[in-house]
Predict the 3D structure of the following.
Amino acid sequence: MASIKNLKKDANYVLGDIIEECYTWELMNPKADTKPSEAIIDEAIETYDAFIDKIHVKGIDNKKAYFKSLNAELEETAKKLIDKVNKL
């Protein structure tokens, strides 16, 4: 089972990299409309907040399965956000 500490770090690194990629795209395309990239940044921040809230849920019966599903959810959400960044 992955530790809670590592799940938090993974969420921070993965979603932080997606946000950084959006900022890089904005710098490389100064004349482009930044609303789509700002929407992706906002979605990444909301995802991070929701993920941290899910990590801190108390009273879980099967912690191993719960945290494994959280890890899979983070991976799936990150792939969707990366696809959005690639479409910019």
Summary: DSSP finds three helices and no strands in the chain. Residues 35 and 58 are 37 Å apart (CA to CA). The first helix runs from residue 4 to 28.
